[in-house]
Amino acid sequence: MIGQATDVLCERNTELAQEVIAADQTVDQTEVEIEEECLKILALHQPFAGDLRQLASVLKINSDLERIADLACNIAERGACLHRFPCFPIPDDLPRMIGITTEMVRLALDAFVDTDAEMAKKVINRDLAVDELHLSVIEELKSLMKQDSEIVDAALHCFSASRHVERIADHAVNIAEDVVYLATGEIVRHRYENTPTDSKLPPK
Question: Rounded to an integer, what distance in angstroms lies between the CA atom of residue 103 and that of residue 89?
């Protein structure tokens, strides 16, 4: 869904927008099914220690994945709106930002499957690069709006899309933090916000 939403946004491929939105219904249904299964396990088996930690992590990750799907839909909708502005230049840092964010989601899920705390910490540390790119996109959009007031609507759609991408990265971090908790029992929320590791932007 993130990949399709990116195509809608960057390539003005509006046909994919409805596919992204339709896929969200499947995600919503699956989220409910997973939550119901987790609650059944809690009620019937009363897990404790590592099993309870795993169940708690699954419930939280399940919710983050559903929110990521919602945000992908929002990006697709912003991209569909940008179709009306074929000459509007997408800031170069936005596709780079999407690339890092997509990789963060992929790594976070791999870390969950493998219960790999070190891989999860790499995801957490990459969030700073996304935040820096988001600020860069905002500054470029501000500059464009100052130069040409007629592109304000298009720039605001692009700004919203960038914000949605930044939020997806935040949810990837949430998943990674849950993986660290699952693997080690350590709660690491808010501990990696200023960690410089892996925070350098990739070359343009």
Answer: 24
